[in-house]
Design brief:
By secondary structure, the protein is an alpha/beta fold. The protein has one domain (14-143): Nuclear Transport Factor 2, Chain: A (Roll). The chain has helices spanning 13-33, 39-44, 64-74, and strands at residues 2-3, 51-54, 85-94, 97-107, 112-124, 127-137. It has a six-stranded mixed β-sheet, with helices on one face.
Length: 152
Amino acid sequence: MKTSENTLWKYSDEQQQLAKQIIDLEMTALDKWFNGDSSGYRDLWSKTNFSYFDGVFDHRIDTHEEISKFVTSVVDGKLYAKSYDFTNPRVQFGQDIAILTFQLHADTSLIDMHYNCIEIYQKEGDSWSVIHSTWSFIRPMDMDFNAIKEVV
């Protein structure tokens, strides 16, 4: 895994600590994801207030249950990558809200991934959960969707 960080954003000490925590939560979920384990995200996503957009779907997913069923069937034991690039992370803050945006690149066992990602975190009790997630293809007009790899 390779990361690059943009140091243009000026944060208070408290915001720097929270930004690092949010980025660490995301990267922990990604580390599991690229080892065929969706539990990192399933644990990170809010169980009570969640929505999800992805170029794969023609609609918004509105429940933890629906997204969990999908990612378990697609990722668990099937999706692997030797490495990934987590680039240009930025965390923006509101009242008990943190918005993480980043780009993700990975050559996986299923498809080459190039995504613009938006993760909206909300403080739920003492922890942070993702309440909305959007994964949009970077320049979808350049993608070859016929190149999906077969799972052996």
